[in-house]
Amino acid sequence: MALTNKQKQFLRAQAHHLNPVVLLG
Fold first, then answer.
1. Residue 6 has what pLDDT?
2. What's the DSSP call for residue 20?
3. Nearest to 22 by CA among 14, 3, 2, 7
């Protein structure tokens, strides 16, 4: 996926807050 830094930060924050496993894929 081609994401901007803002999108990456947002998704990372959301995923980490909701379910850290999402970050690991």
1. 94
2. T
3. 14
Residue 14, domain extent: 1-25
CB 16 within 8 A of CB 5: no
- The model carries a pTM of 0.41
Query: What's the whole-number average pLDDT of the chain?
Result: 73
The total domain count for the chain is 1
First-to-last C-alpha distance (Å) of the chain: 13
C-alpha–C-alpha distance, residues 13 and 2, integer Å: 17
Contact (CB, 8 A) for 23 and 16? yes
